[in-house]
Amino acid sequence: MSGTTSRDTADLWKAALVEIERPSSPVARFSAAESLAMDGGASLGPWQLAYQTYGTLNADRTNAVLICHALTGDQHVANVHPVTGKRGWWETMVGPGRPIDTDRYFVICANVIGGCLGSTGPASTDPSTGRAYGLSFPVVTIRDMVRAQAALVDRLGIDTLFCVAGGSMGGMQVLQWAALYPDRVFSAMPIATAAKHSAQNIAFHEVGRQAVMADPDWRGGRYIDAGVRPTKGLAVARMGAHITYLSEAALHRKFGRELQAGHAPSFSFDAEFQVESYLRYQGVSFVERFDANSYLYVTRAMDYFDLAADYGGSLAAAFKGTKTRFCVVSFTSDWLFPTADSRAIVHALNAGGGPVSFVEIETDKGHDAFLLDIPELFATTRGFLDAAARARGI
Amino acid sequence: MSLARPENGFRLDHLLVSEMVEPGSRVLDVGCGDGALLELLTTRRGVDARGIELSRDGVSACVARGLSVIQGDADTDLADYPDDAFDYVILSQTIQATRNPRIVLENMLRIGRRAIVSFPNFGHWRIRALLAVTGRMPVTRNLHYSWYDTPNIHFCTIRDFVSLCDEVGATVERAVALGPSGKKVGVTAPWWFWNMFGEQGVFLLRRGRD
Is A351 within 8 Å of B81 when comparing Cβ atoms? Predict the structure, then answer.
């Protein structure tokens, strides 16, 4: 990256390292005896999940909403981020008076297993060696993430979640929740997601992982022991991925072919175009807060996701007889998780007889739209949850 | 469409359709608009109601009412529903806007044991007179589009619809013609009378012949 991988970034990463082991969020700790049986065959223990909650659990324990975060998200949905100091990633959606109204609902969000903000992941210390797990951490699946969340929900004394909601990888977890624990999910909002990761999406992820692994500072995943970080590789991975979160129209609207300096070209390889400068910034700011190995593991989890495969190849079978109320949302310009992916989910739910609503929202903002200020998304969410709350008696 | 004459806030054609539906049954409303009929069926008939609607605004309005509605197109999306998924499939004031009314009707009778179809009758005397006298495509209060911008690409008369039902092997269990006020016209009258004086037809169909 440009020379801006500076002291600031290093200081922020120090703060991030503290968050890995001793997060500022509440932590649910599970002993070796409560180990997490993972899809890959490993048994992880002891392990922990760092989580945030907002609002108050009602006396009947019926108003809990679980938010599932996306690939590079974390549990800081609606509070200032402890590392970056930025606002919560879904503050437009979650909070007092927001569509997911914390005056009405008890909102929970946990950092996924394999993540790097306080939940056990490859940057955590392996108790058997005293060193960071690195690549000896077992490969994680979406179902592993959901099983871990279920253990947290148990720990919080909640039987049935009023709603499980999330976009992108969060949406995959929503689908997995509904398939794995149909009786524990009253309503579900999978947004901008798919029941399986496409070949194209796996391909993009592989490019990102190879960028990380090609960085000499990756050191075969043992960079924490060596006191270095593959920031260049991780930043390139983020830059590539970030393009897939936008759309051609959005990039054109934001940057066009505008030059950074605003005048004549300099005929060099500096960040000449505004879009280059923007991407470099995205890359550099990402490495401040994210662990490179975590990026490998969490992208891998998405790659492995194919919900139908667990049910004899039939997605309808995954949702057969479900009572969960679904609201599926997609965005017209999302080419990473296109509307066809959401329609496949809707068809499966219809075939299984499940109550499902589906809205495709018109926007040029691409996949990232689920995180942005999209009034139609807010109106749909509010309407869906209001109606579900009436049905639930809350 | 034509029958925006509310009775206790409900359209008369919606009330007529709801009378045709057995309480507690499973219903799919194709082209459900803002969900007014689905809500009527849910509250008055206690049905398990689902909808398909093309417009985003319509779907959003339905979701906010707590209805299960998916954004979709009758012409393309009915094929994805399994056989016998519903007791009734309703197509209210929409068949004339589909690209392939016959396939839509066949799908309805495959997905549901019964189908309810309401449509504007192009055989009404006023429309016939307009075409005969002016020599131009009729534009009326209810059918107010010009030929070049109308979404209604497959108009039919009540008699045309009866023969389509025959072609797809459906039995007409009940048929009603509604006049300008939304009131039934000539309940015991013959087809030609309905075809002349009904502004719209409402049909309850059953799969197969007697």
Answer: yes
**A384 touching B, CB under 8 A?**
yes
- Asked if the interface predicted TM-score (ipTM) of this complex is over 0.85, the answer is no
CB contact under 8 A, B63 and A356: no
Contacts of residue B133, Cβ cutoff 8 Å, sequence gap at least 6: none
- The full set of domains in chain A, from first to last, is 7-392 (3.40.50.1820)
Residues A58, A63, A68, A69: is their CA dihedral positive or negative? negative
Interchain CB contact of A353 with B (< 8 Å): yes
* Closest CB to A387 among B59, B65, B80: B65
Compute the distance between CA of residue A295 and CA of residue A279 in angstroms, rounded to an integer: 18
Q: How many CB atoms lie within 10 A of CB A182?
A: 17
Using an 8 Å CB-CB cutoff, list chain B residues near A360. Answer: 56, 71
- A334 part of the active site: yes
Distance from CA of A107 to the nearest CA of B (A): 21
Say what angle helices A231-245 and A292-304 make with each other, to 10 degrees: 40
Whether the Cβ atoms of residue A192 and residue A331 lie closer than 8 Å to each other:
yes
Q: Which tokens in the block code for residue B102?
A: 């016959």
Q: Does domain B6-207 have CATH number 3.40.50.150?
A: yes
What's the whole-number mean pLDDT along residues A229-242? 97
Please, what is the Cα angle at A373 between A250 and A113, to 5 degrees? 95
Condensed to tens digits (0 to 9), the pLDDT of residues B170-181 reads: 999 999 999 887
Q: pLDDT-based confidence at A5, cuts 50/70/90?
A: very low
Q: Domain residue spans in chain B?
A: 6-207
- B54-87 tens-digit pLDDT: 998 899 889 988 899 999 999 999 998 889 999 9
CA-based nearest residue to B180, from B158, B200, B164? B200
**Measured between CA atoms, how close is B110 to chain A, in angstroms?**
14
Residue with tokens 């490495």: A287
